[in-house]
Write a structure and sequence with these properties.
By secondary structure, the protein is an alpha/beta fold. The protein has 16 helices and 8 strands. The structure holds guanosine-5'-triphosphate and magnesium ion (MG).
């Protein structure tokens, strides 16, 4: 309950202090917003027939999901307890239009996904504060294209919302883990995403013997080290469903980590607040790097403006004093120059006319030069080498840059010459204060 209170408080703070900045820099805020809104989510993904629905039925204790040897599920099914106010089955079209649910963002994937999305409202106290999502099993790359929506991207979107992702494989398809993993990895926070995913090799009872199992396990480990680039292999849960296991005496023959896996899944809600903090942390850091880059571009624009301005003013003053001397010697106009009128004590306002015209014309030309040439050149040069807009001193900053580069280039290339006067330091301070003050406070609260 205390955690719920902290979550609401944090949500209010983000909406008040940070949300307006996201829209200022044209950064999508909806995923952060929807992430904070709903209950903890466990997402089950993996190859078709790897035992996803069987595991879910086991967790819930009823045959809520259909199971079968051929590809069975072609829909994303959200299973949760929403109370008696909601019907037992809620179609995708309702889900994507309900602002209180985090599925509005799926609207953009169109009718094909909407008709393959649904919510099953079950009567179970354990699921009042938790939802579990069953997903269509992964097929091969060519068949994926026939779904009519970008399956991998949608998977990534679900992964972003999830507090725990269970990635399931069976011994027959241990080699196809890579695509699924890379689809979700990029969507998770850089530093901590790893511990949101658990790897499960299911249906191990179907291995004929231990050496068969070891071979499959070895393939899986090899693929994992290839995709994570790490030598340490994360824990892989080796499980089977006792209810459908094919071998007799399975308990004696095979290791079984099903209970531990179940405990992990049931403990997922506890990770919720931490994940919300990590997500906010990641997105506010993304916002910060965008803000820094735009601020740097504007600073360069102002410094160029000052440089051109100084030269323009120097020329303007020169022409103000001596321009009429020049025209006088060439065209004999004006008859009396400003300097000679001052010297001869015959100065009148009329003597200022031509010098002022010179001065104003120079200033106007300077502005035109800055506007039509200087600023455009600066813009071109900056875009050619945009990566030096911000410091990218470490891996974390470089990754942030890679992720936000497109947005930064968009913002910079759409900026106008007059925009250089927009100061971003106030926004940067706000972001910094939020990261170092508010967010830290919540991390500490969570630890205590
Ligand atoms: N022997 C054995 N069979 C299993 C196990 N888990 C699931 N099965 C069977 O494997 C088949 C596929 O299981 P599902 O739970 O439907 O697999 P899924 O991952 O949901 O598949 P899709 O919905 O098609 O993506 C079913 O016939 C299950 O009865 C297991 O641990 N051992
Ligand atoms: Mg299924």
């Amino acid at each position: 309950m205390l955690k719920n209170k902290i979550q609401t408080e944090l949500q209010n703070k983000v909406n008040k202090k940070i949300a307006p900045l996201f829209s200022k820099y044209d950064i999508d805020f909806t995923s952060l917003e929807s992430g904070m809104k709903w209950k903890p989510i466990v997402l089950i993904i993996g190859n078709y027939s790897s035992g996803k629905s069987t595991l879910i039925n086991e967790i819930i204790g009823t045959e809520i999901q259909r199971t079968g040897q051929a590809p069975t599920d072609d829909a994303f099914t959200v299973i949760t307890s929403e109370g008696s106010n909601r019907p037992k089955d809620v179609p995708g079209s309702t889900l994507i239009n309900d602002d209180n649910l985090p599925f509005v963002k799926f609207r953009k994937y169109g009718e094909k996904l909407t008709s393959h999305l649904c919510l099953k409202n079950i009567d179970s106290p354990a699921f009042e504060n938790m939802a579990i999502i069953d997903s269509p099993g992964m097929l091969d790359a060519t068949t994926e294209k026939d779904r009519g929506y970008n399956y991998m991207e949608v998977l990534g979107e679900f992964a972003k919302m999830a507090d725990l992702i269970v990635l399931m494989f069976d011994p027959h398809k241990a080699g196809t883990i890579k695509e699924t993993y890379s689809a979700i990895r990029n969507t998770l926070p850089e530093k901590s995403g790893e511990d949101r995913i658990i790897f499960v090799m299911s249906r191990i009872d179907e291995c004929d013997n231990i050496s068969d199992l070891v071979r499959s396990y070895g393939t899986l480990c090899w693929n994992m080290s290839q995709m994570t680039g790490r030598k340490d292999i994360p824990h892989i849960y080796l499980t089977y469903s006792p209810e459908v296991a094919s071998t007799q005496n399975t308990s004696e023959l095979w290791p079984q980590e099903r209970t531990e896996l179940m405990e992990k899944i049931h403990a997922a809600p506890d990770l919720r607040l931490n994940h919300i903090l990590e997500d906010i942390d990641r997105q506010v850091n993304e916002l910060q790097i965008v803000c820094e880059a735009v601020a740097e571009f504007n600073r360069r624009g102002r410094s160029l403006f000052m440089k051109i301005g100084k030269i323009t003013v120097a020329i303007g003053v020169g022409l103000f004093c001596f321009g009429d001397v020049l025209t006088n010697s060439i065209l004999s106009l004006p008859r009396q120059t400003l300097i000679s009128s001052v010297r001869g004590g015959t100065f009148s306002l009329g003597n200022l006319l031509l010098p002022l015209i010179f001065l104003c014309a120079t200033l106007v030309l300077g502005w035109i030069f800055y506007n039509n040439y200087g600023f455009k050149k600066l813009l071109r040069k900056t875009l050619e080498n945009s990566s030096n807009l911000v410091n990218r001193e470490n891996e974390y900053r470089r990754n942030l840059w890679n992720k936000m580069q497109g947005k930064i280039i968009d913002l910079v290339s759409n900026s106008k010459a007059k925009d250089i006067w927009i100061r971003h330091s106030g926004n940067l301070n706000k972001i910094q204060r939020f990261l170092e003050g508010d967010l830290k406070k919540y991390y500490d609260k969570l630890r205590s």
